[in-house]
Write a structure and sequence with these properties.
Serine Threonine Protein Phosphatase 5, Tetratricopeptide repeat; 3 domains; 10% strand
Length: 414
C-alpha cells in the first residue's frame, strides 16, 4: 500500500493554482504525474499524492516541473476566481473512486488520441515525403530527358553540317581532279613539243618531272626526334628481410597512423575557447613531454588528457600518460592507459616495436607495484620478446621471477 504525502503546500492566483509536492529523494525518472480537470496524482513509489480538486482546471495547459527534490505542478483555472480550498472535503470513498476511475479513463482516452494523432501525422509526413521524392524524381527524369533531347539535336545538327562539309569537300576535290586532268593533257602536249625540239625531260611514273619530285620531298616536314622519359619510384624499405617481411601489416599500420592524424576532434563545445595551438594534439604532446622531463607530472597528465580529448587514436599519448601515472602512483590508471596504448599499437610491426615494448614495461611495472607479479612478469616477458638483447629488461624479468619463486625481496620494478 502506498504512503500518502501530506506535507505538500499550495498557493494560488486568480488564474492559476500551484502545488508543491516534496519528492523525498526520488529520482526524476521515477516520478509519474497524471492530471485531469478534477484530479491530480503524483506517484513516486512508495509515496503517493492525490488531489481531488474542488474546482475544474484546464488540464491541457497544466505543467509540471521537477527539480531540487520537489515537483511543482501549475494548474490553470477554468474560472478566474480564488478557491476557498484546494480539494473537496468529502470522505466518500466511492465518490473518490469514481473520480479516480473517470480521470484514469480520460487520461487513457487522451493518450490514445495523442497516439492516433501522432500516427496520422507520421503517415501524413511519410506521404508528403514520398510525394516530394516522386516529384523530385520526375523533375530529374524530365531534366535528363531534356538534356538528352538537346544533346541529340546538337549532335544531329553537327552531323548534318559535317555531311554537308564532306559533300562540299568531295565536290571541290572532283573539280580539282578534273582541272588537274585538263592541265595534265595540256602539259603532255607541251612535253611532246619540247621533245620534238630536241630537249629531254625525265619524268617520273606519275608524269611529274624529277625536279618537281625532289621539290616535293624537300617540302615534307622532318620526322620527330624520339625520346625517353625517365620515371623513378621511391622504394618501400622494410627493416626486415623480404622473406620475413610483413608487408600487409606494415601497410595497415601506416594506414592507421594516417587515419589517427586526421581524427582530430576539435568540435567539442567546451574546447572551443582554446587557442589554435592548444587544440593541436602534437603541440599538447610536446608540452606534456617537457612537463614530464622537469618532473611536473600533474601538468603532463593534463596536457596528455587534453590531447586525448582532441584525438583518441594516438597510442603515444596513452603510453606517456601511463608513465606519468606511474610516477604519481596512480597504478590502476597506469594499467588502463598502457592497455589502451597496446590496443592502438596494432598490428604488431617493426615500426611500433619500441612503443609496444615501452607500454608492456609500464603496465608490467604497475602490476608489480600492485603486488600482481604474475601479470607483471607476462608483460616483461612480452617486452623482452620484442627486445631480447636489452640487458635491463633481462635483469628486471629475472628479478620478478625470483620474487614469484620467493628467492628475492619485492623491490619496485621500473
Amino acid at each position: 500500500m502506498p504512503l500518502l504525502v501530506t506535507d505538500y503546500s499550495w498557493t494560488q492566483t486568480e488564474s492559476t493554482v500551484y502545488i508543491n509536492v516534496p519528492l523525498k529523494g526520488a529520482k526524476v525518472g521515477k516520478v509519474d504525474i497524471l492530471c485531469t480537470d478534477e484530479y491530480l496524482k503524483v506517484h513516486f513509489p512508495p509515496y503517493l499524492f492525490e488531489a481531488f480538486l474542488s474546482e475544474p482546471v484546464d488540464d491541457d495547459r497544466s505543467t509540471a516541473k521537477i527539480g531540487n527534490g520537489v515537483a511543482v505542478v501549475s494548474l490553470p483555472k477554468r474560472n478566474n476566481k480564488l478557491w476557498e480550498q484546494l480539494m473537496i472535503t468529502t470522505n466518500d470513498k466511492e465518490k473518490k473512486k469514481e473520480i479516480r476511475e473517470r480521470a484514469l479513463q480520460k487520461h487513457q482516452e487522451k493518450l490514445t488520441a495523442e497516439s492516433k494523432a501522432k500516427a496520422e501525422k507520421q503517415h501524413t509526413d511519410k506521404k508528403y515525403a514520398l510525394e516530394t521524392m516522386m516529384k523530385l524524381e520526375r523533375e530529374e527524369r524530365e531534366s535528363i530527358q531534356k538534356m538528352k533531347d538537346t544533346e541529340r539535336e546538337r549532335t544531329t545538327a553537327e552531323l548534318e553540317a559535317w555531311q554537308l562539309k564532306q559533300k562540299e569537300k568531295k565536290k571541290a576535290e572532283e573539280e580539282a581532279r578534273l582541272k588537274l586532268q585538263s592541265q595534265k593533257g595540256h602539259g603532255d602536249k607541251v612535253n611532246k613539243s619540247r621533245c620534238s625540239g630536241g630537249r629531254k625531260v625525265k619524268l617520273d611514273g606519275r608524269g611529274s618531272s624529277e625536279a618537281e619530285s625532289k621539290k616535293k620531298h624537300v617540302d615534307l616536314p622532318a620526322p620527330r626526334v624520339p625520346g625517353n622519359i625517365q620515371v623513378s619510384f621511391t622504394p618501400r624499405v622494410f627493416p626486415t628481410a623480404l622473406r620475413e617481411s610483413r608487408v600487409p601489416e606494415e601497410e595497415e599500420w601506416l594506414k592507421k597512423q594516417a587515419e589517427a592524424r586526421r581524427a582530430v576532434n576539435a568540435d567539442v563545445e567546451e574546447l572551443k575557447d582554446l587557442t589554435e595551438e592548444e587544440r593541436n594534439p602534437d603541440w599538447l604532446k610536446e608540452k606534456g613531454d617537457k612537463c614530464f622531463a622537469t618532473g611536473n607530472y600533474l601538468s603532463a597528465v593534463n596536457a596528455y588528457s587534453l590531447a586525448i580529448r582532441m584525438n583518441r587514436k594516438i597510442p603515444s599519448l596513452y603510453s606517456n600518460r601511463a608513465a606519468c601515472h606511474l610516477k604519481l602512483r596512480n597504478l590502476h590508471k597506469a594499467v588502463e592507459d598502457s592497455s589502451q596504448a597496446l590496443e592502438l599499437l596494432t598490428p604488431p610491426v617493426a615500426a611500433n616495436a619500441a612503443a609496444r615494448a615501452r607500454a608492456h614495461v609500464r603496465r608490467g611495472s604497475a602490476f608489480c607495484q600492485l603486488q600482481l607479479h604474475a601479470e607483471g612478469l607476462q608483460d616483461y616477458q612480452a617486452a623482452l620478446k620484442i627486445d631480447p638483447h636489452n640487458e635491463a629488461l633481462q635483469t628486471d624479468t629475472q628479478r620478478i621471477r625470483d620474487i614469484i619463486q620467493g628467492t628475492a625481496a619485492d623491490p619496485e620494478t621500473h
